[in-house]
Amino acid sequence: MNSENFTLSEKIVSPSYIRQGSQARRSHEQLIRHLLEQGKCPEEGWSESTIELFLNELAVMDSNNFLGNCGVGEREGRVASSLVARRHYRLIHGIGRSGDIAAIQPKAAGSSLLNKLTNSVVLDILKLAGVRSVASCFVVPMATGMSLTLCFLTLRHRRPKARYIIWPRIDQKSCFKAMITAGFEPVVVENVLEGDELRTDLEAVERKMEELGAENILCVHSTTSCFAPRVPDRLEELATLCAKYNIPHIVNNAYGVQSSKCMHLIQQGARVGRIDAFVQSLDKNFMVPVGGAIIAGFDESFIQEISKMYPGRASASPSLDVLITLLTLGASGYKKLLSERKEIYLFLAQELKSLASAHGERLLHTPHNPISLAMSLDGLQAESDKAVTQLGSMLFTRQVSGARVIPLGKEQTISGHTFRGFMSHSEAYPSPYLNAASAVGITREDVTLCIKRLDKCLKTLKKELNVAKSSSPAPPSSQEDTAGE
């Protein structure tokens, strides 16, 4: 209620009680005012009642919620189900206009304000997470792969002769298909094995730049967050090469916001060389439903150019989800999650190392990967070619999700390109292994239960293999062979 309505209420209920209620209302409004003034994530999280009040205030600003509104167009924010309307807080119009996802909608001042505030709050979080000099960003209602495609399509207009994208190999289908879908030819650069780690082959990248010619290369498509034993690309060196040869640089930072190391690499790459845009997933970094990503960069005009490339209006759901989440957590709550993730990474590494040692395996040494870990499975491979993949099946049926078991020699063809040793980021990685990751939101209980079940699976599998070996017929001895002759 406004001040006039509070004054009128004093004629009905005791003025002292009304004034108390008015002060409570002002405390909510004070938080909202600070958000509107600063455009930053509040330091302390909001209560659900404040968030719902704020969203309801935004919703009544949209034309579909106007009292007495008469809509005669084809897009009037009509919703058949009241359940759907409540699920979206009656913010039905989405974001953007037909020509620009970042544009203001005349029919939807509330939804437009939601969109602008979300982008501003997310930009603040990217800075807080380590990329201090990021200039602009926007939330796009597509996951990481399609968001990368949007970046590539935008670069097409700047580099009409280009047909190649240089891509240090990362065995993840969506980032490869993002280049194919955009109509470009990926130039796959194999990684270099350094100890247990797979790292960027900078010499091979530069050779490809010289061989293909800068004008024929759309960009370098690098990666930060990845599954061990691959580690983040050498972003500083790649950014320096891109600046030297005047080639754009797009970074796949899928779940890198949660890692200060990944964010530092992006910050440093932009400082010493060239990074045009970096893309990150909403669900992986902020624990919201799948379906959104953040496209960010250091040149505001280029990021605006990407947003204008998006055709038509867009769903507001990813923006709404991440804004609610960040208002709930506050900057302090999100920083706490990031700190806990780091601590549990060390705990996971310690537990995996102990388990590996107990089973005659070892934790692969991948210090440059701050999120993912890998444990060798050489002993299983020696027992049986199928034992490694069988372990993966056993873990899945025992509700251990996210753990990846990587056998030797797997081949996979994607859009006509055959990857040897697929899933291992290398044509011939020397060891089969198991992955586990410490991602934002993980708990010590998750780790403890995973290690317990993994230990049990390994023991069961080895027992089954020993039984199978002992029950198979023994080969004839050399004396029997001679007698038979």
Automatic annotation (TrEMBL):
Sites where the protein binds substrate: R97, S98, Q105, R313
Ribonucleoprotein among keywords: no
EC number, as in UniProt: 2.9.1.2
Superkingdom of the source species: Eukaryota
Residues annotated with N6-(pyridoxal phosphate)lysine modification: K284
A single MF term (Gene Ontology): O-phosphoseryl-tRNA(Sec) selenium transferase activity
One Pfam entry name: SepSecS
Site (May act as a substrate filter by repelling compounds with a negatively charged alpha-carboxylate): E74
Main location: cytoplasm
Localisation: Cytoplasm
Function: Converts O-phosphoseryl-tRNA(Sec) to selenocysteinyl-tRNA(Sec) required for selenoprotein biosynthesis.
Protein name: O-phosphoseryl-tRNA(Sec) selenium transferase
